Amino acid sequence: MKVNLGPITRIEGHLNIETTVENNTIVDARCMGEMFRGFEVFLRGRDPLDAQQITQRICGVCPYAHAIASSYAQESVYKLNVPPNGRIMHNLIQGANHLYDYLLQFYQLAALDFVDITAILKYKGKDADLLTVKNWVQSELASGKSYPAAPFLPRLSGKYISDTDLNIGAIKHYIEAMEIQKKANAAAAIFGGKFPHSTSIFPGGCTQNARIDLISSYQSLIREVRDFYHNKYIPDVLAIAKAFPKYWEIGASKGGFLSYGLLPLTSEAESERVFSSGVLLDGQISPVNFELITEDVKHAKYSSPSGLKVKDSTLTPSPQKSGAYSWIKAPRYQGHMVEVGSAARILVDYHQGHNPKVKQLVERFAGQTGITPSKLNSVLGRYLSRAICGAIIADFLLDETERLDTKGPTIADIRIPASGEGFGATEASRGALLHYIRIKDHKIERYECVVPTTWNASPRDDNDQPGAMESALIGTKVNDPEDQIEAVRIMHSFDPCIACAVH
């Protein structure tokens, strides 16, 4: 039987999932990006310095990553000598945005798949059936009270956390996490100008000054965020893992892993980063080569040529195209399907032994949960990987603030050449983000974005090879073919952003 699970809620954008179920097992899956935007089209002919502003509007959740990827691409074209302060401020802005996004994804978008809202009523000694919960929520909302129940309903049928104390604690942290997210956003806005859509990020650095009062304010906010990660976020992830251990075995994608690396340590174009870049295929790590990335459109709603390299890519919408089922392209690395995101970021770094903190935390939590690092390719693995990333980023950002020079420049002088081309790569919170720009006669001639969820939620490629999310669904056993809470938990673990995927 075929089942449409859409619209998938608690994600960004418009996504439908069609699964084919036989004997309570998903034997086929289709991820359908259901909108078209066309950023590459309306960037043509514009001033190059518009790019880092316009591309931020691809996404209101991770705009800073787009601004920085665009800035990196332009820095490559302009041959800029970025001052250390400029590189550090980019890191401070982007790192705080990652901390915000991981909290949002876990508490507001994903934890609701596991937490039992009826625990509130059980705690109050009332009847806890769902009808009572719904009536209670309606009465609470009608009275003008603000209570954390509404977002938990309606819910899918399935097993939820049974421990009442754990449920109450998780709901409490759900509310607290919103306040911590505001602090992470406030920290990013200190140097970014505002959130979302920074006004201060430019190629070559940042227009904000490295004032001591700004540094102190940033440190104060990030310390609170860091403490929440260590004292609440990570324990909550581990508690869910203990309650649902089978999800270490569910949701594994069937390809490789790709990371561009995150948070450069110097201003050099090929700088070492806090999280290293690399491609992990069949257990082997290799350096990233942008020339090996192509985009297939056999099953995407475009009539432009398929299999083009990023710098040659074109965009011709074809909504009625036969055999197409998604507005998302199918990026492939040397023909391989790869997963990007938190698990990819951690696995790529772990296999290289690049960052000792990554290795230390992976092995500590693997030991506590009784898994091997390979199990990070799973529903629970993606959640644990985000927690590890957040803990490392928060510590790094506090150290990074100490490296700011209050008397040094924060941005390079910019002179736009008549022509040139460049790539800019970074890690958005959802994974590998690549921008390409080509300039002719001082204007943008071609622009292309290959975005994390374009990789993860891609349709089948020209060889009918499924994307990462599709492959993670196939083979999953479901208790209720109509609801498929298992499939929804898999989807949420990828944290898809469809506005980014279709850009």
Write the CATH fold name.
Cytochrome-c3 Hydrogenase, chain B
Which spans of ≥5 residues are poorly predicted at pLDDT below 50?
none
Strand order of the largest sheet: 10-9-6-14
Q: Helix count, per DSSP?
A: 15
| Domain count | 1
β-strand percent reads 15-25%
Give the CATH class.
Mainly Alpha
CATH superfamily assignment? Cytochrome-c3 Hydrogenase, chain B
**What is the first-to-last residue Cα distance?**
32 Å
Radius of gyration: 22 Å
- Please summarize the sheet with the most strands: 4 strands, mixed
Oligomer: single chain
Q: In total, how many beta strands?
A: 17
Explain this structure.
The model has no long low-confidence stretch (mean pLDDT 93). A hairpin with an 8-residue loop joins β7 and β8 (273-275). By secondary structure, the chain is of the alpha+beta class. The chain has helices at residues 39-43, 51-54, 63-78, 84-110, 118-123, 130-142, 164-192, 212-243, 342-352, 356-369, 379-401, 452-456, 468-473, 485-494, 498-502; strands at residues 2-4, 15-22, 25-33, 201-202, 205-206, 256-259, 262-264, 273-275, 278-281, 284-286, 293-296, 308-309, 330-333, 338-339, 419-428, 431-440, 443-450. It starts with a strand and ends with a helix. It is globular. It contains 15 helices and 17 strands. α4 runs antiparallel to α7 (164-192), α7 runs antiparallel to α8 (212-243) and α11 runs parallel beside α14. The chain has a four-stranded mixed beta sheet with strand order 10-9-6-14, covered by helices on one side. A three-stranded antiparallel beta sheet has the order 1-2-3. A three-stranded antiparallel beta sheet has the order 12-11-13, with no helix packed on it.
